[in-house]
Design a protein that fits this description.
alpha/beta; TIM Barrel; Jelly Rolls; 8-stranded parallel barrel; 6-stranded antiparallel sheet; 20 strands; binds beta-L-fucopyranose
Length: 513
């Protein structure tokens, strides 16, 4: 860890100090005072050497909020609006608030469903493209205040934000920039309206962890009765830098999602799949919201000057909103596990959508799938067969140690010497073990470095390649055939700076996967 020493390092220095005192005492020269003096000098030297011990960070590193965000791994989306009652995916904007009439709405049930799936945060569509607001906005009557829900006294943004806080979940908000209801959409006054709504949401509902800006923008709509097609200039209409500055002013620790970040980026598809190569480095200037090269979003940019984490959004059903006709198309636990490997296992987060139904509940089938999904992950990743292995490396930087990759502490790491261009990390598992899942993590607070690596196992008297991949980042998961071996090694073949690894895991997948 930067600037901190492990206990054994301090103990070693205490020990040296005692030995020194012993020597001095033997020749009768020194008693207590010099021992204290020597101890202080050694402790001081220790502090300095530990400060100096860490590898220099890359020029592009995450913020503490981005690191915390990525550790959540799985987060949930709640898509809810009049669409649940019209059976549409995109409301036209002419829907009457009268139709929004959930009979048993229970935000606590949404939270329980999210927790059943291992989610650590929920993001609510406070307003989707149809313009209907799930909170009683002062700036429109097209809201829940004019719906039968709680006789117009309800506020789903408040109810869910409070339920999340009670359960220890973070809370985020989606506010569709495209508004097919508003008469001024595509004209300057709408921007004032949009920012007023942002201000309401970001001031009245406690801590907002993530603000989600959708890239879908412009097209047909009701637009206050105009019933026409309206387009906008995606690069200039919203003046995003000003809007984002407002968001950060109101919520200093919020992470902003959009195609262009600035903190979290769309992964370039709505199937929940990050690139096999996935850098958190990115160049925001190459992307406009709603107008981005999807491949660039998917893989990031090894030379990008900004740290922008990839987020993989996908729905548990074919649609983003609830449709009874899709009750038999809920993703299976196995499909969700696949998505976990292809998102979290590729250095991104998984944003999984759960659409409440007309009752206002997450459907039983969705909950069942979430529960089984989490049970599989828990079983697969329960026992790390690499924990406590004996680790060796062709080189090691200063106070880092290969032992730190198997100490189950993601905050400690091993790093190679800078002149060891292709370091090898070898694990002696202390006897034969059988595994088929590999996990590798980089200490991303120092940047993302590794660009190519292979994994080999010692089988039948020789090393055999069992996996190969490019980037690692926060977490890389690889699936292999079952491998039985007592020795595994990671060969790093390419990196943009001194390679470092914080964790290695070997697991045997749940038979249910
Ligand atoms: C898209 C929207 O058009 C969909 O309805 C959904 O909200 C998805 C997350 O983003 O751009």
């Amino acid at each position: 860890m930067p600037g901190t020493c492990r206990h054994w390092q301090l103990a070693r220095h205490f020990e040296s100090a005692r030995q020194l005192q012993g020597k001095f005492n033997t020749i009768g020269v020194i008693t207590k005072m010099p021992f204290l003096y020597i101890l202080c000098v050694l402790l001081f030297a220790t502090t300095i050497s530990c400060e100096a011990a860490d590898i220099p960070p890359n020029p592009v590193v995450p913020s503490p909020q981005q690191i915390e965000y990525q550790k959540m791994e799985i987060i949930g989306f709640i898509h809810y609006t009049v669409n649940a009652f019209t059976d549409k995916e995109w409301g036209y904007g002419s829907e009457s608030p009268e139709i929004f009439a959930p009979s048993e709405l229970d935000v606590e049930q949404w939270v329980r469903a999210a927790q059943a799936g291992g989610m650590k945060q929920l993001i609510l569509t406070a307003k989707h493209h149809d313009g209907f607001c799930l909170w009683p906005s002062d700036f429109t009557d097209h809201s829940i205040a004019n719906s039968p829900y709680k006789n117009g006294e309800g506020d789903i943004v408040r109810e869910l934000s409070e339920a999340c806080a009670r359960a220890g979940l973070k809370f985020g908000v989606y506010l569709s920039p495209w508004d097919r209801h508003h008469a001024d959409y595509a004209r300057p006054p709408y921007i004032t309206y949009y920012r007023n709504q942002l201000r309401e949401l970001l001031t009245n509902y406690g801590v907002i962890a993530e603000m989600w800006f959708d890239g879908a923008n412009g097209g047909d709509g009701w637009y206050g009765g105009a019933n026409e097609r309206r387009t906008i200039d995606r690069k200039t209409y919203y003046d995003w830098p000003v809007t984002w500055a407002l968001v950060k002013e109101l919520q200093p620790n919020v992470l902003i999602f959009s195609d262009a970040g600035p903190d979290i980026r769309w992964i370039g598809n709505e199937r929940g799949i990050a690139g096999e190569t996935c850098w958190s480095m990115f160049d925001r200037s190459k992307v406009a919201v709603g107008d981005a090269d999807q491949r660039y979003l998917n893989t990031g940019d090894p030379h990008g000057p900004h740290w922008v984490v990839g987020e993989c959004d996908v729905s548990i059903r074919p649609g983003w909103f609830y449709h009874a006709a899709e009750d038999d198309q809920v993703k299976t636990p196995q499909q969700l596990v696949d998505l976990y490997y292809q998102s979290v296992g590729r250095n991104a987060t998984l944003l999984l959508n759960l659409p409440p139904d007309r009752r206002g509940l997450i459907h039983e089938r969705d909950v069942e799938s979430l529960r089984a999904f989490k049970a599989i992950l828990d079983e697969t990743f329960k026992i790390n067969l690499a924990a406590g292995a004996t680790a060796q490396s062709t080189s090691q930087w200063s106070f880092t140690s290969p032992a730190y990759v198997v100490d189950e502490d993601a905050d400690s790491h091993w790093a190679a010497e800078p002149d060891d261009a292709k370091p090898i990390l070898t694990l002696d598992l202390g006897g034969e073990k059988t595994f088929d899942r590999l996990m590798i993590q980089e200490p991303i607070r120092l940047g993302q470095r590794i660009a190519q690596f292979t994994v080999e196992a010692y089988i039948d008297g020789g090393w055999q390649e069992i996996a190969a991949a490019t980037t690692i980042g926060y977490k890389r998961l690889l699936r292999t055939q079952p491998i039985t071996t007592a020795h595994v090694r990671i060969k790093i073949l390419d990196a943009n700076n001194t390679p470092a690894i914080s964790n290695i895991g070997l697991f045997k997948a749940s038979p249910l996967e």
